[in-house]
Specification:
With 718 residues, the protein is α+β, with helices and mostly antiparallel strands. It is 29% helix and 17% strand.
Amino acid sequence: MKKYLSVMSVICALAIGFCALGLGGGANPAQNVVAFDPNLPAIEALQVEGVFEGFEDGELHPERFLTRAQFAKILTKAFPDFPHNEALFDFSDIDKTHWAFEYVQIAANSGWLNGFPDGTFRPDDNITYEQAMAIVSRILDIAPYNASYPADYVAAAIEYSVSDGLNCLIGDELNRGEAARVVVNAINSQNGQISRDDSYNSSALFGAPMGAISGGSGLVADQAATVEKTAGFASASGAMGGGSSANIVIPEEYYPPMSDSEEYTKNDENVFKNVLTSPLSTFSIDTDTASYSNLRRFILNGQPIPEGSVRSEELINYFDYAKAQTTEGVPFGVEHTVAPCPWNKNNLLAMLTVSGEELAEPAPSNLVFLIDVSGSMYSRNKLPLVKQSLSLLLNKLGEKDTISIVTYASGTGVALEPTPATDKEKIMAVIDSLRSGGGTAGAGGITLAYEQAEKHKVEGNNRIILCTDGDFNIGISSSGDLEALITEKREKGIFLSVLGFGMGNYKDSKMELLADKGNGNYAYIDTLREAKKVLVDEMPKTIYTIAKDVKIQVEFNPKYASAYRLIGYENRVLNDEDFENDKKDAGELGAGATVTVLYEIVPANGNETSGLKYQTSETVDSDELMTVSIRYKKPDSDESTLQTYPIAYQVSEELSEDFCFASAVAELGMILNKSEYAGSSTYDSVIELAKKGLGSDEYAIRGEFLQLVDLLRYRIDN
């Protein structure tokens, strides 16, 4: 059972963000010569509380490595109230004369750490990333029962944000600054923090104390050979409190059994096209991100990754890149980079970035929360997480916005008529009252939600936000019938976005279709932190559309390119003639959203021939590699507008951080999809590229990608 511990009062003040740290009272922290170290605020704050100490030279030295004994001392100071017994651990290499003897004994008695199979503790060995993650996971009791070292502990640390801000791999040694960040992350997690932003505390959000659940994990060793519990020492975790902030309390035995009924659609990957015979590449944009967060779930759970679940463009577009500059009167801008292809040095890789303009002032919103309350939604990562997620969005809405709530199970109903978003208490009372049970009349719920949205339509943003695992089993359930229903309703100016939840019976293919045909976007919510990313940090691009039916058509110049391949977007590819067809549906662009497109390009060899019997090639002399054309409609218009952007042939030798990182994500997508075009791609090359592209990583999501790939590599190799 995963739990949160109650935080000691003196450390509560450390539930802080690293970018805007206030040090308050206490001793003046020692200044460090490594002033640019991103972990310096964490170690300074912990010094104020007496958890970290400076050196004789008056400096904190966050860059110095930390030993196992030193880490034990830090943890006993950071968590002094953790219960422990008084039994004596007899390690052959540390006795009562050792300076850290007392700290090691407390940490061992508390169940945080153990020795090695040979009976040693190795106090002077540097603490490794995976050892630290295992120890802190035991303190927080977040690892699964019978956890396998180190993978399950690293996975738990990633899931609960303990490793946030660390760019470490399994086997790396931690320095003092990184250890300080881990301690603060642990305190944040323990204190109910859901993100890297200290303004989102669970008690403030949900207005209720944490529920009480129980469990324990026993003592687990630091090495795989000694993972069995140590005989004679009781687990200290059984007395700890914690749990979910949702009102529904679901006993663990009610968890549904894992099943293999999840549904995904596999598409054949794009192939190389000859520029002379197929000079145009046409596709609909895609700003969905569900595939990445779903992939994260598979990696953290150690599950096989289903065919069709990895859509490369959604992996790439999960991350933010430098925005292209927009011009007045045009809702987006375009930037590009052309450089050698990382996985095939003989080819080029073109990175196109299409950025939507920011929203000057949000229009009034008429939002209908369409919530699946069927029996399949009872797991903690389904309806309880839906409730918490919607509360985050509610806190971002204003006085111009209204909320309605429609539910469906065996039947459908309007749980809340339109209510000002500022009446949070009334809205949350309805959300908190929801219970799961019954069948899944999804189509009926969608129909009722559209009726509700249309009845209270506003001059502005009208949108349904569907929260479900996608398992429709009453009424219309086939993809074709659902597509027809959504297509009919979207013409009335009401968009449909989909938030997916849960596992086991998850219907990814159905939910992607609903969002696609509903002129909305699709995200998968695996944690409350992901809900904050989608509904708080990225709220404008999630619920405000600035352009609809956005199509991209790229024309390649045979002078410089002989062939090209679009990476991803397989289920978004359009016929060339669809580009000018305003009746052809395409993707939507949200306010401030960025769409990133990668093309692998085979350079021209100078032999301009089509290879056809009745046609010859005549090309216009130009220094352009390609022309990017974008056709779009305003949200309230049925007529499209065309914008064109010529791209000069200029190959960059110095690669930007964004280019490196996007390339790394593309490589991972090709590896997981077993692409025949993966070239020299390996997990090692993905990690190497990603490291070059980490950048400032404000929200620590690029670092998380690095950790996930490393964890995936470890699981495969072991």
